[in-house]
Amino acid sequence: MNNPVSRSYTFHWNNNTFVGNPYTYTLSNNPVSFDVFALDADGCPSDTLTIQINPMPEVELMANPTEGCAPLCPEFSTSLPISDPLIDTFMFYRYDSSICLETPKEHEIKMLVITPQGCIDTIKTTLDVHPSATADFIFSPDSIAETIDQIEVFNLSTHNEFNEWRIDSVFYSNNEEPIFSDLDTGTFSIQLFANNSFLCNDSIEKILTILPSSNMFIPNAFTPNRDQINQTYGPVFEHLPKSDLYSFTIFDRWGGEVFHTNDPKIQWDGKTNNIAQPQGKYLYRISYAKQNKEKVRLKGHVILVR
């Protein structure tokens, strides 16, 4: 400690245990006080100044856990409780006690320790946040598809290094984006388990529904002549559509309606009101909904041959 007062004074420190200027004192973490006064050349003393040095408590900031997957939400504790007489306040710096860290990186957490005398110290600890895998994917075709040869998946996961695909909880593939093939009609649970080297994993489940095909064939002629071959006319479906979404109408060449039904199982027998219609070209119109509810409208011509 240095006092810049004129050298015509002599300084007496710590109960006269040291005379001179400056006075060097080695600090410790224990409470201590000492005094200093000055004598001028005539031996007249000054007022005595008492110097008080307050201790700073030795405290450690601890976290559990100190590393893990994002979000990391550790519990904090200190090596001394808030009830310790050397401590007045603990205060987190830029955080609060309910910290949840989302960003994958090394985070330094600081806490201010304030004593009853107003002394302030900073304690800190380091937390290592690892990236968490986020599992996601989409289907192509759409998640509700009619019978097709294969279904592709597009892996939209992030922070994933390893993938495991399952169908109805049964292992299927470890590929990044496998192709699902040979699936029958029905509803399937497609599960993706995404993981990384930090074992920060995630999973997602999506339902894939494969509906029966709505493929349809319609001939361009028929012969209702009692030979038991091609006696009726109408579309032939691989799987029948719903009747409330089905319409099949036939018109003659003048635009008159000669046949209509909403039942996909019923076909035209070449008659109207039980009267055989003449040979010739007729117009048909068909509307129906596929199994995936996609609407289809068709029109064309058919030749009635007798």
Structure description:
With 306 residues, this protein is mainly beta. It folds into four domains: 10-53, no CATH class; 61-130, Immunoglobulin-like (Sandwich); 137-211, Sandwich (Immunoglobulin-like), CATH 2.60.40; 216-304, Immunoglobulin-like. Helix content is 0%, strand content 46%. The protein has no helices and 27 strands. It has strands at 10-13, 18-19, 32-39, 49-53, 61-64, 67-69, 75-78, 89-93, 106-114, 120-130, 137-140, 144-146, 150-155, 162-167, 170-173, 179-181, 186-195, 202-211, 216-217, 221-222, 236-237, 247-251, 257-261, 271-272, 275-276, 280-289, 295-304. A hairpin with a 2-residue loop joins strand 24 and strand 25. It is rod-shaped and about 150 Å long. The protein starts with 9 loop residues before the first strand and ends with a strand. The model has no long low-confidence stretch (mean pLDDT 89).
What are the defining features of this structure?
mainly beta, 306 residues, five-stranded mixed β-sheet, rod-shaped, Immunoglobulin-like
